[in-house]
Specification:
Strand order of the largest sheet: 3-4-5-9-8-7-6
Distance between the termini: 45 Å
Helix content: 25-40%
Number of helices: 14
Shape: globular
Largest sheet: 7 strands, antiparallel
Radius of gyration: 24 Å
Length: 501
């Protein structure tokens, strides 16, 4: 059995599987970890990434805490955090101080005004903001103990709060020299993550919401064979499973063919597209399409998230981009490199003399240079960027030669919704139905459901199904008798319920 490190924080029991092995692997390559799933609402999941920075000889730990679309957590919920505005680049990530109630003196007020102005110029209604863990109220001894633990290890946890229409992502980041990183640093980081989860859940100073819960931090591949984890649906998705986007799917199949026949491309001197921009409203399947393209090509899939690039220190974001592309130039297998929510990574302010504009323009400039050299040096990599707000991305960043393919991903029309519903139902039946268990009734009619759901995206339809599945499972779990298959009426009620919120 792998070595385990078990601690208790806020009444929750946390087990880290093989911490020495995880850190040893993370010294040479990115390592992704999961922290279970038993989180109090509105938190829906936690993913931790360990990424080495060979240039700085640092190990960066970034923990993403995601919440649902209904989360309306205010800045007051993170009551134990204090602003730190130490660099000009920080204005791009700063919260607008007027909305926080935090007093930081004349410098803080000045930086707050700069942040608000930067946000206005970039067209961001509620940009990500960065705060640094300082010290909690005296009435919260549990949080004080966690921060004392981090301070004893010379950690300075940083928190990036990024609200969006899909909820919010709060990211905890720490940096530790590679030469000195130890399991204690991992334990302390997880403790800070649980503190953020606790605050997002609105816990009192006396810990309650995490009490009795159990979390296991491990790589996804280490799930015991006796309880195999189902692969996330987007990781195994193929183009055949994509509904309502026939033209996009056809274009992706062409791109996949070009990757599968490099000899033909070379004979004709043809350069296959290496940059794809997908834009459209939230929930239309842009990220899923990128994964489906990777699966169609037989390529590795690597997703770059905003917290892995944005850095409050001057020059940090540019250094992060260089490191990501430096690694990409060494890939020897076909790889899809996804920059999700591209506008939040690299919004472009155009010409400007203030610190905010200069910092953003520097990041955009480095991205353009790195994209040019990647295309020249490594034809195995295809870069996909997604955005809900294409107007926030400067045209020079996505010009032909960098991003040769630009595809609009609109909300599905009625025929598209019917196709999506049919494919999702078929996927669920294939995954869960079996002898003695029937999941859907014969009266389920995708065309009728599509007519009842104008404006719904693929993500919305997935949520309707999730709610109906949960309702059936809870009815059976509490009543003790089989709940019966999902009917057309169940799905109609699910659509109505989703519209109510």
């Amino acid at each position: 059995m792998s070595e385990q490190d078990t601690v208790e924080r806020f009444g929750a029991r946390v087990t880290i599987v093989d911490p020495d092995g995880l850190l040893a692997a993370a010294r040479t390559e990115p390592v992704e970890l999961l922290l279970g799933s038993d989180f109090p609402p509105p938190v829906t999941g936690v993913r931790i990434t360990l990424r080495p920075d060979t240039a700085d000889r640092m190990l960066r730990m970034a923990a993403e805490i995601r919440t649902g679309a209904g989360d309306r957590t205010t800045d007051a919920a993170l009551r134990w955090l204090a602003l730190s505005m130490a660099s000009p680049a920080g204005v791009l990530l700063a919260r607008r101080l007027a909305a926080t109630g935090v007093t930081t003196g004349p410098l803080g007020a000045r930086v707050g005004r700069m942040a608000a102005e930067a946000s206005r110029r970039l067209g961001l209604d509620d940009p990500p903001h960065t705060v640094v863990v300082d010290r909690p109220p005296a009435a919260d001894p549990a949080a004080a103990a966690v921060l004392a633990e981090a301070e004893a290890l010379d950690l300075r946890p940083e928190v990036v709060d990024a609200p969006s229409v899909a909820g919010r992502t709060v990211t905890v980041r720490v940096e530790v020299p590679v030469a000195t990183v130890a399991p204690a640093h991992l334990r302390a980081t997880v403790a800070v993550v649980l503190q953020v989860v606790r605050d997002l859940a609105g816990d009192d100073p006396e810990p309650r919401v995490l009490r009795g819960r159990t979390y296991v931090l491990r790589r996804p591949a280490t799930t015991p064979p006796s309880r195999p984890a189902a692969a996330p649906r987007s990781e195994s998705v193929t183009l055949d499973q994509v509904g309502g986007l026939d033209e996009v799917v056809a274009r992706f199949r062409e791109i996949a063919i070009s990757f599968r026949h490099p000899d033909v491309m070379a004979r004709w001197g043809a350069r296959r597209p290496q940059g794809i921009l997908l834009y459209g409203p939230p929930g239309t399947g842009k990220t899923m399409l990128a994964r489906a393209l990777a699966n169609e090509i037989g390529a590795d899939f690597k997703e770059i998230r905003t917290p892995e690039i944005l850095d409050k220190w001057l020059g940090g974001s540019e250094r992060n981009i260089k490191q990501i592309f430096r690694e990409a130039r060494r890939y020897r297998e076909p790889t899809v490199l996804l920059f999700d929510e591209f506008d939040s990574i690299i919004s472009y302010a155009g010409a400007g003399g203030d610190a905010a504009s200069q910092a953003v323009n520097a990041v955009a400039g480095i991205f353009k240079q790195e994209m040019n050299t990647l295309i020249e040096e490594n034809p195995n990599v295809i870069v996909v960027a997604t955005t809900n707000f294409p107007q926030r991305v400067d045209a020079s960043l996505v010009r032909s030669g960098r991003f040769d393919v630009k595809l609009s991903i609109p909300p599905p029309d009625e025929a598209g919704r019917a196709e999506i519903i049919a494919k999702m139902v078929r996927e669920l039946v294939d995954r869960h139905a079996g002898p003695g268990f029937r999941m859907f009734a014969d009266d389920v009619d995708p065309a009728d459901l599509a007519a009842l759901s104008p404006g719904l995206t693929g993500a919305d339809i997935r949520e309707v199904l999730r709610r109906v599945q949960l309702a059936k499972a809870m009815r059976e779990a509490t009543g003790g008798a089989p709940a019966g298959p999902i009917s057309q009426d169940d799905l109609r009620e699910g659509i109505v319920g989703l519209r109510r919120g």
